[in-house]
Write a structure and sequence with these properties.
The chain is an all-alpha fold and 329 residues long. It has one domain. The protein is 64% helix and 0% strand. It contains 17 helices and no strands. The protein has helices at residues 4-8, 10-19, 22-28, 33-56, 60-85, 95-106, 113-126, 134-139, 146-150, 157-169, 174-202, 204-228, 250-255, 262-267, 276-282, 284-289, 297-306. Helix 4 (33-56) packs across helix 12. The radius of gyration is 20 Å and the shape is globular. Residues 323-329 have low confidence and may be disordered.
């Protein structure tokens, strides 16, 4: 596994260690399984209730908002899986329970929990490197054209993602590759089974509303928008700014289950997601001294698709969420 980020962030880690009092940092790292379980139950409930409402509403402008909610809920199971990867779910580590919970969260999005784990940990270790960060190397758009980047917000995301996953998995040990294939097959069969049952017993129109619109059309938007707030607008010369600082928001905290605090997550990967808003508040003086600017998803979309900024670069001057300007490259 690469250690590119660790090799380039010694000064940053020292600065962060001085920034937050030890007791506060200990509290931020506290894992509360009941809180996580409550969020998981709420997420399953939202997905189920949205599906029921979609099925019982006839007019498109009534059921479509719930299809959007359903699609974002499906995406957020990857956020829950992400918590399993960083072992922030249980009070004490338990491999068997973690594997079970991870598989449970991987099913709605149709991915392999084992690949997600390896892929994501390699991403943390290789952050800042084009070759060693698998997300950047295999998944980020290599053609800086609006039409191509827009494909990531459409069903084209699925072949793009699975191609990236296949290329990366080719470098894994054979046993891990076999595990990934078994897990991916199981989740795909699960999804085909749901779709088949819906079409057979409820008809294609209902399957379209309940399953196909949320999964094939809303999920890619949630995925691409979330990733836009991760590492696309960065300063390659400063390891402290190798992730994008997104302004905290109660709305986006709910919509993305706190995964909008991606910079803070890379600083302290073992902090549970529900503690990340507090971490951002504590780091506010650090951000001010280091010349950070908060960004919003609206600003990032404008820069990315309208102004056609290249991923993983320092984007040109634009108003920031705190009223300051981002300095030009």
């Amino acid at each position: 596994m690469s250690h590119h980020y660790a090799d380039h962030s010694h000064e940053l880690k020292s600065a962060l260690g001085r920034e937050i009092p030890t007791e506060a940092l200990r509290e931020l790292h506290a894992r509360r399984p009941v809180v996580h379980a409550g969020i998981a139950v709420a997420l399953f409930s939202v997905l189920g209730l949205s599906s029921v409402l979609i099925a019982n509403l006839d007019r498109w402008f009534l059921w479509l908002p719930f299809a959007v909610i359903s699609g974002f809920a499906v995406f957020n199971f990857t956020v829950m899986l992400h918590e399993v990867v960083h072992r922030t779910v249980l009070a004490t580590h338990d491999d068997r329970k973690n594997r079970f919970i991870g598989f449970l969260y991987s099913v709605p999005s149709g991915i392999s929990a084992s690949q997600f784990t390896r892929w994501h940990l390699d991403h943390h270790a290789g952050l800042g490197s084009f070759e060693e960060d698998p997300k950047r190397h295999y998944l980020s758009p290599k053609i800086n054209a609006r039409w191509f980047k827009a494909l990531y917000f459409t069903p084209a995301l699925f072949p793009i993602y699975f191609r990236a996953a296949r290329l990366e998995a080719a470098s894994y040990p054979i046993e891990l590759q076999k595990t990934i294939k078994r897990e991916r097959l199981a989740t795909i069969l699960f999804h085909l089974g749901i779709l088949g049952v819906l079409i057979a017993f409820a008809g294609f129109p209902l399957a379209w509303k309940i399953y196909m619109v949320p999964v094939f059309f809303v999920f890619p938007v949630a995925f691409a928008l979330n990733r836009l707030g991760q590492h696309f607008d960065i300063d390659p010369a400063d390891p402290a700014k190798w992730a994008t600082l997104v302004k905290g928001s109660r709305l986006w905290d709910v919509v993305f289950l706190f995964s909008n605090y991606h910079l803070e997550h890379h600083y302290f990967p073992m902090v549970p997601f529900y503690n990340l808003p507090a971490l951002q508040r504590l780091l506010a003086p650090f951000y001010e001294r280091r010349g950070f600017s908060y960004r919003t998803y609206g600003q990032l979309l404008w820069q990315y698709l309208v102004l056609n900024r290249k991923p993983h670069t320092r984007w040109e001057s634009a108003p920031s969420a705190d009223g300051l300007a981002v300095r030009q490259s």
